[in-house]
Amino acid sequence: MEQDFTIKKSNIAGNGVFANKEIPKGKTICFLSGELCSLDEVIKRVNEGKEEPSDPLEVDDEEYLDLDEVSRTFNHSCNPNSFIHGKNELIALWNIKTGEEITYDYSTTMNDNEEKIVSAGRELWTCKCNCGSENCRGIIDQFKTLTKEIQQFYISNKFMPDFMLKVFG
Ligand SMILES: [Zn+2]
Fold first, then answer.
1. pLDDT in tens, 20-41
2. DSSP type of residue 86
3. What is the 8-class DSSP label of residue 133?
4. Total-model pTM
5. What are phi and psi of 51, to 5 degrees?
6. What is the spatial distance between Cα 32 and Cα 26, in angstroms, rounded to a whole number?
7. Ligand 1 centre from 87 Cα, in Å?
8. What three-state secondary structure class fits 119?
């Protein structure tokens, strides 16, 4: 998938993934990939310092993809131009121009089991947001912390993974 994208420094955070050609709205951009892990395994790896708390992508209840290097390079935006469909399919939310950075809203995948994470001695992962969009929320946090209006936008358009639609839809 690398030929469709360029990975380079992003104004949002670290490196980002940029489109090498126009991507029409609704088109599959790629499937995010990585090793499938249980929440217990993710907690273990983070506690052992083997991985960053920001790397695993929640794809089902207590099920995560430990994202590979390219997949975890996609940055978050509070005004994203793509979304995750099904389990790990990244789809263009609108027409993406050549050279535009491809982003999705991390919060649409975040419904972590707080009780389990806290009882394992960790806090829920959050991150200061630097996406620069007009509607930037300032922090990347769990889906339930979003306003009802923003939640409804993602739910009614099905701009979020299946397991999240099952919980919130
Ligand atoms: Zn933001």
1. 999 999 999 999 999 999 999 9
2. T
3. -
4. 0.95
5. -155, 155
6. 16
7. 23
8. helix
